[in-house]
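Saturday, quiet lab. Running sequence design on the structure tokens for the scaffold JK sent over.
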């Protein structure tokens, strides 16, 4: 059974993904065996990169979407980071001081290091630096030193979380944006503190450049490229080692953003985060001509699609791996109107609504076959608001750690869709693995036009292995 499940999982991978899995995971294995040698190599590569300039012309525009994100994630708790106190994914952690932070401690989440990674993103330094207070710059430099001291490359697991290229990409964006905002707010310069932060940014840029997540692709690879594009813009757009971005970025955008504007991973939360990433790319000014127009068009499509996957309270539907508070509210990210009926035929969402009464219907794939790791068994599921209040509500995401909580949150019973008792339409295993997977699509609801003012219909094949077809009609009577 395990062999069959593995085959049902990997048979969807492309030849390119297989190649990069071998190369990227081989590289990670070597780094894990020889961490100090890897640290020296990345350090040497960093020394060949120029130091970034947070005062570069594009940096204020780049910082705007980054600040909007981090103010949402950290709210008013960011100020406590200067004293070693943090709120990470709903849990409080108080270390007493920056120097006492247990970067490699236990984060109440089991084997998955998501809270440890969020702590290492240093996102809370963005609003801290944006105050323009000297204390914020001093605290940021101390946080960087504490992170480096508390996470030597030789520490078990450090290369998989804190020095993961995804975490390093977040730090590049957050620290560059934070320093730019500090200068814009009239913060007093401190050569020593800034030197510490800029050296760390450069080290992260070298690490990400040497560790692009081409094996995972999608939102991870896009985040790597966005961070490097911001770094290149902060260096005047003239870093030879980053010239590849002019072709790699448009390709990654095409992979992530579908023709109807939806995100390929079919997560409204990652869609909102991806929209912010594309706004950073626009702000860099590096993609003039064709690529620039392509990115601008993708931003417009994503804004329109975001309205179609939002409910009457101005927030996203929580399909697949999504939760509220990880991105700014949808209503603040788009001015697009979904109208009475908005369809995303490629993404697989339909929104029916009038005023604050709305329903979003999931009648599409669980995700891209090449990486459906954020999928849930929510085929033909609905979420609804009545009078602007949540009425039919998704269970949400309690954890990314493999185990009963993760399994139950992804199961069909956790969603508002038709299901067969004791069976699953998707075969999930570990934290992000997907074996057998069904499909779903929209059906013509025209035959039901006399039944309700607004209607949509769909099918799903998740139970085809049991000889069962499933179809569903969703109708809305606004008011």
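Result came back. Writing it out in full:
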């Amino acid at each position: 059974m395990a062999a069959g499940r593995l085959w049902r999982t990997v048979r969807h991978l492309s030849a390119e993904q297989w190649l990069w899995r071998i190369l990227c995971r081989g590289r990670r294995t070597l780094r894990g065996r020889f961490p100090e040698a890897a640290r020296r190599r990345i350090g040497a590569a960093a020394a060949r990169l120029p130091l970034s300039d947070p005062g570069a012309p594009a940096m204020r525009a780049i910082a705007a979407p980054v600040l909007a994100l981090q103010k949402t994630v950290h709210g008013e708790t960011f100020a406590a980071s200067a004293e070693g106190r943090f709120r990470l994914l709903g849990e409080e952690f108080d270390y007493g001081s920056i120097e006492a932070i247990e970067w490699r401690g236990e984060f109440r989440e089991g084997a998955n290091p998501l809270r440890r990674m969020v702590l290492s993103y240093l996102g809370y330094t963005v609003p801290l630096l944006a105050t323009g207070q000297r204390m914020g710059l001093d605290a940021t430099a101390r946080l960087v030193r504490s992170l480096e001291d508390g996470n030597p490359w030789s520490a078990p697991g450090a290369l998989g979380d804190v020095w993961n290229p995804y975490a390093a990409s977040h730090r590049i964006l957050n620290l560059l944006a934070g320093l730019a905002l500090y200068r814009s707010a009239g913060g007093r310069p401190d050569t020593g503190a800034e030197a510490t932060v800029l050296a760390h940014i450069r080290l992260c840029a070298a690490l990400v450049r040497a560790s692009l997540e081409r094996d995972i692709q999608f939102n991870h690879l896009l985040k790597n490229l966005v961070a490097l594009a911001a770094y290149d813009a902060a260096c005047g757009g003239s870093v030879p080692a980053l010239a590849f971005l002019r072709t790699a970025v448009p390709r990654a955008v095409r992979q992530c953003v579908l023709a109807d504007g939806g995100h390929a991973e079919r997560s409204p939360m990652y869609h909102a985060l991806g929209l912010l990433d594309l706004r950073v790319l626009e702000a860099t000014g590096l993609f003039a001509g064709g690529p620039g127009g392509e990115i601008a068009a993708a931003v417009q499509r994503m804004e329109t699609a975001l309205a179609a996957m939002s409910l009457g309270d101005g927030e996203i539907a929580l399909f697949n791996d999504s939760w509220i508070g990880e991105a700014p509210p949808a209503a603040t990210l788009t001015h697009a109107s979904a109208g009475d009926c908005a369809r995303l035929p490629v993404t697989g969402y339909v929104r029916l609504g009038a005023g604050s009464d709305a329903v979003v219907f999931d009648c599409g794939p669980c995700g891209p076959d090449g990486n459906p790791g954020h999928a849930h068994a929510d085929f033909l599921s609905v979420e609804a608001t009545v009078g602007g209040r949540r009425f039919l509500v998704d269970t949400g995401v309690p954890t990314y750690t493999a185990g009963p909580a993760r399994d139950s949150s992804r199961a069909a019973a956790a969603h508002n869709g038709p299901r067969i008792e004791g069976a699953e339409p998707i075969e999930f295993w570990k934290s992000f693995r997907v074996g057998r997977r069904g499909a779903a699509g929209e059906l013509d609801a025209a035959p039901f036009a006399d039944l309700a003012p607004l209607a949509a219909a769909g099918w799903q094949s998740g139970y085809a292995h049991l000889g069962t077809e499933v179809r569903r009609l969703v109708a809305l009577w606004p008011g």
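Notes for JK: The mean pLDDT is 95. The chain is about 45% helix and 15% strand. Ask whether to fix the surface positions before the next round.
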